[in-house]
Each structure stands twice: as C-alpha cells, then as structure tokens.
Specification:
189 residues, alpha+beta, eight-stranded antiparallel beta barrel, 2 helices, 9 strands
C-alpha cells in the first residue's frame, strides 16, 4: 500500500509540474559499482569467489522546476540495488542504498551537456530472499551525488533521452558508502 501511495504521489507531482510549463521529470536506470568500505568489500569479494552471483543496478527518479532559463531546482531519490544470489540454492540478499535529495541541475547551453549536484538524507536497507517483511533498515545518514550527462534533445521541451554518470557518497551509521554509475534517462521537459 505504501509503494502505491508513493508512486501515486510521484505521478501526481509529475503531472502538476508538467502543467506548469517550466518543469523536468526524469527516470533513469543503469549499471553501478558500490563500495561499503574495505572490510565489507573484502567479504563481498570472497563470497563472489565461492559461487555468489552479484548484480548491481542504479535508479534515479527526479522532479525539477526551472526558476531561471537553463537551470532546475530538483527533488528526487536515487538508489543502488546490490543483489547477491547463490548459484547453488534460491537464497538471496539485497542491499539497497537510497539518497533522498534536493539538488540543482544546469544546462550551460539550454540542452546538451548538463551537470547536477544533489544532497540529502541517506538510508540503507537489507532484504533477504525478496521478503520485505524481513527487511532491516539503517538509521538516517547524509549523502551527496554529483552527476554529469548529455541530453540529446534539440528543444527545451518534450521528451528526450540523456546519458550520464553519477558519483554518490553517503555517511550512514559511521560507515562511508560510495558508488558510481553509468545510466540513461528518459526526460520530459
């Protein structure tokens, strides 16, 4: 129920901002690499040597409003899902790292290249065997994300495709979690 309410709110905000005319809605997905710190990374590396398959995915959902031409004030959430599956059984575990952010995106030339800086609250969640009832969430931390990309639109409105790179750093429960991603986004301006 909570997921439906959040999705409905997101879609409502997308439609509301789009009707205002100076808005940006973006949904991005791509591959990622994440580090949990040297000690935990060593455990992950040894697990992979014993038949554990690892899949890492980056997702970014963004809403923006343009107070001035070529720039957007943004709100959104990005996350890295790091899934570990046993090659020998149906056991799995997933570590999700989230950043709920407020940010700023600018296009130096109206379209084309852009850069963005985001900051806000960060959280981790551990899910075992796809049963969210057994999920364990961390305390809140802080995080920052830097993005750079290229928007292929020739116009400042309508649908467009962009590609980008993102670098995240979060401090959660005295642990530093970093990630990098290469992603593609579908945008509506």
């Amino acid at each position: 129920m909570k997921k439906i309410a959040i999705t409905s709110l997101f879609l409502f905000l997308c439609l509301t901002l789009s009707a205002a005319g100076s808005s940006l809605t973006s949904i991005g997905i791509g591959g990622a690499s994440i580090s949990y710190g040297e000690e935990f990374d060593e455990i992950v590396d040894s697990a992979e040597a014993y038949g554990i398959d690892r899949t890492t995915l980056f997702i970014d959902l963004l809403l923006g409003y343009s107070p001035v031409q070529n720039s957007y004030v943004t709100v959104g959430v990005n996350g890295v899902g790091d899934r570990f599956m046993s090659s020998y059984s149906s056991e799995s575990m997933q570590l999700n790292s989230y950043l709920y952010y407020v940010g700023y995106r600018t296009y130096p030339n109206t379209t084309g290249m852009y850069w963005e800086i985001d900051g806000g609250g960060a959280k981790m969640m551990i899910v075992q065997n796809e049963d969210f009832g057994d999920a364990v969430a961390s305390d809140w931390g802080t995080g920052i994300c830097l993005k750079a990309g290229y928007d292929f639109s020739k116009d400042n409105d309508g649908f467009s495709l962009s590609v980008g790179v993102a670098a995240n750093a979060s401090l959660i429960e005295d642990e530093t979690i970093t990630s990098g991603a290469v992603y593609a986004s579908l945008n509506w301006k």
